[in-house]
Write a structure and sequence with these properties.
Number of helices: 5
Helix content: 25-40%
Structural class: alpha/beta
Largest sheet: 7 strands, mixed
Order of helices and strands: EEHEEEEEHEHEEHEH
Strand content: 15-25%
Strand order of the largest sheet: 1-3-2-8-9-10-11
Number of strands: 11
Radius of gyration: 17 Å
């Protein structure tokens, strides 16, 4: 029997927010939200409240490392490097530190051991570098997690991209990105599909990998949640599953 996590369950060094399920429903699921490079947990705490997912507690985690030079915001990487050719920060700088926090501190020692959840009841939602961190966490689990939503977050280069079909990770993944100016290129998508058995790809009609801007862009994510979230109260009479 699982119980809903509270802030005191987690190590004191972590910065996170917990958004309870709507209408005091039991938390059959946990969704872990991971913001993008240079952001903080505040914006994704607002997102978690807006999602209002049934029977789902949302844990919004702040990345462990602040950006240098008083830039503000935080990042998930082991290091911070700048791509001199385009003048931006590199997303893919290793995820060992964030993996220890997300896999060991949050999922294994707290959600599984203290709160009694099963891996199948835990999902991750990440944007940009946060999506890469989510993929890294799922790759470290032999057990199937509830699912991964990654917006503009490809497979980290440190992960093995080519494995046998029997070794592919069983956690379902939905990958979303822009029609151009995107990190989700065809080669990046192929690498994700080499590592995971079930990969759904949604290409938006607009350029760039920003967060969803419309109901149309958000709908595939909500359908994914409808398929993967579990319920303690069962399916209501007359309910129709979104396919």
């Amino acid at each position: 029997m699982s119980r809903q996590p509270v802030t005191s369950d987690f190590p004191a060094h972590l910065h996170l927010s917990i958004v309870e399920p709507p209408s005091r429903q039991p938390a059959a699921n946990v969704l872990i939200l991971l913001h993008g490079l240079g952001d903080s947990k505040e914006s994704f705490t607002t997102l978690a409240k807006q999602l209002s997912l049934p029977e789902t507690a949302c844990i919004v985690v702040q990345a462990p490392s602040p950006l240098p030079f008083d830039l503000g915001g935080f990042h998930w990487g082991d290091d911070i490097t700048f791509d001199q050719s385009i003048g931006t920060m590199d997303y893919d700088t290793g995820f060992e530190k964030s993996n220890r926090i997300l896999k060991r501190d949050i999922i294994e020692e707290t959600l599984l051991d203290k709160c009694g959840y099963q891996p199948r009841n835990i999902l991750l939602f990440g944007f940009g570098q946060g999506g890469m961190a989510a993929i890294a966490v799922a790759s470290a689990f032999r057990s199937e997690l509830g699912g991964i939503v990654t917006i503009g977050g490809p497979l980290p280069s440190s992960l093995p991209g080519t494995v046998s079909s029997e070794e592919k990770n069983k956690t379902p993944v939905i990958v979303l990105g822009g029609s151009s100016n995107t990190l989700i290129t065809q080669s990046a998508l192929r690498e994700i599909k080499k590592a995971f058995q079930q990969v759904e790809y949604v290409k938006w009609s607009r350029p760039g990998d920003g967060m969803p801007r419309s109901r149309e862009e958000m709908l595939p994510i909500m359908k994914f949640f409808a398929r993967r979230l579990q319920s303690k109260s069962g399916v209501p009479d007359g309910a129709i599953e979104l396919g």
